[in-house]
Design goal:
The structure is a single chain. By secondary structure, the protein is an alpha/beta fold. The protein has 15 helices and 6 strands. Strands 1-6-5-2-4-3 form a 6-stranded mixed β-sheet, sandwiched between helices. The radius of gyration is 24 Å and the shape is globular. It starts with a strand and ends in a 6-residue tail after the last helix.
Length: 335
């Protein structure tokens, strides 16, 4: 199951367990800790009193009481003291111990705040990196939906490493929807960026008027028009020597969703799912656009998400979690 970066009030999130960035007493405090105790009600504090506290880097579990979540997993993060006193190892332990507890209690979904990134002073970009890396390592061997709940994106510098000149690229390539409509009205399918195969696909779909000259000259299309989205995905998996789990985990999509795609030759995915699989398969731009067309979509310069995907493929950035950070930094939905 996937890893999702979201901005939301963790106390209102409906999942099997939420993680509380607690203090060692487990008796409540400020920030996320206080908010969770207030939302859960007095019975949470009553149960916590019987736990005997918690060591830094460890985790303990209680019921959620008035929360939408069934469980609260309490973990104590390290106080940041420059980074040379084992803080990173202790923070990793917080995530590992919490995930182990969620797994042992049958949780299929769990939500984390950025542990230690508040009053405990852990630098937010580093805390975020530890959270993502540790959760991804867990997901290599386990099936679970994991949320990383970031209350405020400011100060995280998310996506800067791989997307250093993204803003400049957006300035040069992003156009408003009105501008795109105007360009399309001037017979955009005649622009050089559209190959004969794309014109043919447009005519087959009824989106482009039939060009008799093109139709008469058809000898061999640039791609198989009768190959479905599912067939192309499965063919590319085989060609690249990948396994199904490698593909859907790299795409950050649920195993059950991938099973639906595999079992239905005519499956019509959402645009985000189609793009995620194209990124997982590390398709070059021409094949990526072909896969989108088979799902009934195309990249648009008036869609900020599409422009970022365009940037990523041009720069051979196929790590969907790095791309998610860039999307999150622009207040866009992530994969």
């Amino acid at each position: 199951m996937p890893l999702k970066i979201i901005r939301q009030d963790i106390t209102k999130l409906e999942c099997d367990a939420i993680v509380n960035a607690a203090n060692s007493s487990l008796l409540g405090g400020g920030g996320v800790d206080g908010a969770i105790h207030r939302a859960a009600g007095p019975k949470l504090l009553e149960e916590c009193r019987g736990l005997g506290g918690c060591q830094t880097g460890d985790a303990k579990i209680t019921y959620g009481y008035n929360l939408p979540a069934k469980y609260v997993i309490h973990t104590v993060g390290p106080v940041y003291a420059g980074g040379n006193r084992g803080e990173r190892e202790l923070l990793i332990s917080c995530y590992k111990k919490s995930l182990d507890l969620a797994l042992s209690h049958g949780c299929e979904s769990v939500a984390f705040p950025l542990i230690s990134s508040g009053v405990y002073g852990y630098p937010k970009p580093e805390a975020f990196r530890v959270a993502v890396d540790t959760c991804l390592e867990f997901l290599k061997e386990n099936e679970m939906l994991i949320y990383i709940v970031v209350f405020d994106k400011h100060g995280y510098n998310i996506g800067k490493k791989n997307f250093a000149d993204l803003d400049e690229f957006i300035d040069q390539n992003y156009v408003s929807e009105q501008e795109e409509i105007f360009k399309s009205s001037k017979n955009a399918f005649d622009l050089p960026r559209f190959s004969k195969a794309k014109k043919i696909a447009g005519m087959v779909a009824g989106a482009v008027p039939c060009d008799e000259a093109i139709c008469e000259s058809i000898e061999m299309p640039d791609f198989e028009l009768d190959e479905s989205f599912t067939e192309m995905v499965l063919r590319k998996i085989d060609e690249k020597g990948m396994t199904d789990p490698e593909c859907y985990k790299r795409a950050n999509i649920d195993r059950k969703l991938f099973s639906k795609i595999r079992s239905d030759i005519h499956y019509r995915p959402s645009k985000m799912t189609a793009m995620a699989l194209g990124l997982s398969l590390e398709l070059p731009m021409n094949e990526f656009e072909e896969l989108l067309q088979k799902a009934g979509f195309a990249l648009s310069k008036s869609d900020m998400t599409d422009v970022i995907i365009d940037y990523a493929i041009r720069h051979k950035i196929y790590d969907i979690f790095a791309i998610n950070e860039a999307l999150f930094s622009k207040d866009l939905a992530t994969f």
